[in-house]
Specification:
The chain is α+β, with helices and mostly antiparallel strands. It has nine helices and six strands. The protein starts with about 30 loop residues before the first helix and ends with a helix. The model has no long low-confidence stretch (mean pLDDT about 95).
Length: about 325
């Protein structure tokens, strides 16, 4: 039986990751939302690099860097897709099946404990919130194909039951947050022109004070607190600080080079990503040794790169 799918030619076995998820990158994966959209946009035949002008708005929020997510209005402007909240009042698997039959991709918050693609990270190890894009679903056969992180995967059987069991409408104390994506029918021909306009608009919303400097000012104190917690806490802290800022600016560098192959600001964005990657290892070493005084200096090159980056971007805007 041919099941409805937004991308019927896609299979877990044949899927090839987009180059933004190549393993030789500094940050091969970023966060579940952005990674999912990279692969979805690529499956549409469009350029994911077009959507990252918004990364200039990332700030340091006191205890984390902004969990960066492409604004839905940017997705609509660039790719003609409309993202709407899915009204959930029954079994989420049933809602997803209805939307797939209408040609709509469902984005559902689920528990990564039941996602085999997170093997050795959270699969059957720990519970965590993440978002998947459901492309193919068979409720009776208990099978699912989905976009998640940097790829396209399948699951079945007990994993299917576990993923949806907690969301039965008559047993759960709350229902999951879900969205559905309506795909437009206009040809995608003017991505660069639209992306340039969006970059200027988002640049006007960028932080007025250097967020990397704000992080630098509290890093040693926060790292000392991290060292006093259980080992798993280190990964949560690093994910929400160094990984978010590093991945954010690596994608900004890709965006700028996609707009202009020799873009003068791109090396500064890439420098922030590089420093964050190295600092993640330095943070781990500092926590192990209980010595934190060298961490601010480790971040200093990224502070300087942020200033140079935004000076260049504002001069070119």
């Amino acid at each position: 039986m041919n099941l409805p799918a937004c991308f019927p030619g896609l299979t877990p076995e044949s899927h090839v990751r987009h180059r933004l998820h190549a393993q030789d990158r500094m940050w091969p994966e970023t966060n579940c939302f952005v990674d999912l959209w990279i692969e979805v946009v690529a499956a549409m035949g469009a350029a994911p690099e077009a959507m990252f002008g918004f990364t200039v708005t990332q700030d340091f929020e006191g205890d984390h860097f902004t969990f960066f997510k492409t604004p839905t209005e940017d997705l609509e402007a660039l790719y003609g897709v409309s993202v709407q909240e899915l009204a959930v009042y029954d079994a989420i698997s049933g809602h997803a099946a209805v939307q797939l039959a209408r040609g709509r991709l469902c984005l559902i918050e689920v528990d990564s404990f039941f996602l085999p693609d997170t093997r050795a990270v959270s699969y059957q190890l720990e519970h965590g919130k993440t978002t998947i894009g459901v492309n193919r679903l068979d409720v009776s056969a208990r099978t699912l194909e989905y976009f998640h992180n940097g790829g396209y995967f399948g699951l079945e059987g007990d994993d299917f039951d576990g993923l949806f069991r907690g969301y039965a409408h008559d047993t759960t104390p709350f229902l999951p947050y879900a969205e559905f994506v309506k795909f437009g029918d206009r040809p995608i021909t003017d991505e660069r022109e639209i992306a340039r306009t969006l970059l200027v608009r988002r640049l006007a919303q960028s932080p007025t004070a250097n967020p990397v400097a704000a992080f630098q000012a509290v890093l040693a104190e926060q790292a000392e607190g991290v060292a006093g917690r259980e080992p798993a806490y280190f990964h949560k802290y690093a994910f929400n600080t160094l990984r978010q800022v590093g991945a954010n600016f690596e994608l900004l560098a890709d965006h700028l080079l996609w707009l202009e192959p020799e873009h003068a600001a791109a090396p500064h964005a890439r420098r922030i990503a590089e420093v964050a990657k190295v600092a993640q290892f330095q943070l781990a070493r500092a926590c192990a040794r209980k010595r934190f005084d060298t961490l601010p200096a480790a971040i200093a090159p990224a502070v300087e790169a942020w200033d140079a980056l935004f000076d260049q971007l504002h001069r070119q805007a």
